[in-house]
Amino acid sequence: MNKKTLVITTIGIVIGAIAGYLYYVEIGCLSGTCAITSKPLNSTLYGSLMGGLLANTFIKSPEK
User: Fold this and answer.
1) In this predicted model, what pLDDT tens digit does every residue of 54-63 receive, in sequence order?
2) Residue 39, CA distances (Å) to 26, 30, 35, 44 in order
């Protein structure tokens, strides 16, 4: 893992965490029975996971 990969993944995680929290605040779950959006921690962690995975799709694998 090089420095560029780590930076891109970290940026994706941070942006995803912010987006997950904003999703909880703005949309959320009114009844409290939703698995992901019922608590801010769950929504933030899920957003950071998705952001990290999405950011990793933009990293090119090294040529052999």
Assistant:
1) 999 988 887 7
2) 13, 11, 8, 9
pTM for this entry = 0.85
C-alpha–C-alpha distance, residues 8 and 39, integer Å: 27
Could you give the CA distance from residue 5 to residue 52 in angstroms, rounded to a whole number?
11
Helices (H), the chain: 3-26, 40-56
Q: Which two tokens stand for residue 62?
A: 């090294």
18-53: pLDDT as tens digits: 999 999 999 888 777 888 888 899 999 999 999 999
Phi, psi of 22 (to 5 degrees): -65, -35
19 vs 2: CA distance, rounded Å: 26
